[in-house]
């Protein structure tokens, strides 16, 4: 790509760098004309679109080689590597390939099911057997393996049915004897258990938003009062794409974490799915398309025939799929694997737009595909050039699928450029919690920071209209690909509903938040958190006054600059008091109430309470030295159990931080959390609890007592208390439940499965 950009004439680069949205037709036309006569461009398009040159196509030889390696590992008892090789073979195998007169995919699914069963993944083994049977319904070994999985899951009736079918199909005497022996054992066991059912990881509560709709003339302003924790908005994406770094770990359709029994695309080797349903909804081919011809064994009861039909049916049809977002990428070409995620997302939006218009019998129109804002005029010169180049390349790639309906011209190229700039400022990061499974009763990693990890990028037609605030009154989260927005406070009629696009008050200071939002979304934040003085921004990176017994905060030059900006519009003490709206402010910044020129108080290095001058340069040098020991502890926590000497050094370092940084500085909270985790790792639980509580006390000042961050920290504290058998676990767990219900409503247990364990175990201590 860099070679292609460097080949563009400087005069054209300059025109693109200086262009506005109104110039896009002209700049796109010039770039198209230049590329049409550039051999390098045509070679790049061939590399991206020629199936013979792609590395993402199906390959029977590669699949057979991986299968042989899997067989070798299985024979040695190395079931983990056998599982890995069988999954690799499934990804490469053509759906119509055969192996010893059986469908190769069916054989691979059965082989992987055996590895999964050996590793204790019984439900996953069951699903793989069912997939094999959809492809090859009279596969005796698949029915037998399915019986073994059902038996391990105590689904004895289903296991008996599976063995009965297997016995009818099996032709060898030795095979029949093995099945009869297994069947005899099963008949002696309980038949009362029903089949295991996976718990859905979706919205099963049926909860409906309290706000039916937002009119375009109203924006996202509510016309009625909205109670705390009410569901405001629910929406599936117009288009979405998994991030490249998550392709091997998360489902390419629902974005949930991949199970051990991944399902590959039937036509290419790029995406992985968590189920056949997700594979089909994304635009993959139906399994049943490759089902081998079969006849039912003779003398089967009607009940057993129906059982076979149920097991060998995929349960979902492509006719129910409204828009197959991956299908146009699934032609064995290389471009979907190498182009950036936002470019692939733009392609999905464009293809969906064309297909929707075709279904309505309308000639495709390419202007105004998305009714969303764009920031093309604020983009850097490099970004403008990049968008132009990628738009032309994407259009050439899409022509392989929609040649007749997608001409190569400046109109469509310029619209893709607009789409890319709309995606830049309107797409939402679909996130998952870094820890979500909580299967361990007490995993001390729970004391580490809980993170939201971005796994996908999506455009939500209505969700994009919610404006940002660093102190939002609504919270967005995702179940599968569905966006949910919930009120985190009581919102009165006439108020605007606002989300956080990223950093919030307490998380970063004002200067960091504003810089991030301007760089990422091209606007200067003027929300209440950025326009008004708040305690959190003073504390966040504040220093300790060097005068004994003074609790005042000392700010550096960066914080002082932004606070002065906020104070420009204040006209008197009453206005200041109304704006601050926090009783604690007089304790840390009492000079504000003693001056008529408030900005003079905010000089770097001066205490906002007593006016003493602090040497911030000397303090920072001492802090930097102390941070060396803390960094060593963090590195040790990431790799192994830290030695006691490192913990002792970190304790000395945090004492230094406490003397130089304000008691509510966020850095102290972070180090307290590190030390709590370290004490947990060596079994010093009481010390871990003390430091965890100290961290939470600081974070409550920065975020407020009911913020979701506090809920995450209280989970850590409750885990520690639970291991100590403390009855106070129940009180903290109840606080967690209240906070999470505020942010997630009835979905709290789905978002945080570990919470269910905490509630159950804490209840036993009462």
Automatic annotation (TrEMBL):
It comes from Sesamum angustifolium. SUPFAM superfamilies: SET domain (SSF82199), TPR-like (SSF48452). TPR repeats lie at residues 63-96. It holds the Pfam family SET. Residues 199-210 have a biased composition (Basic and acidic residues). Keywords: TPR repeat. This is Stress-induced-phosphoprotein 1. Residues 314-502 form the SET domain. It comes from the Eukaryota. InterPro entries: SET_dom, SET_dom_sf, TPR-like_helical_dom_sf, TPR_rpt.
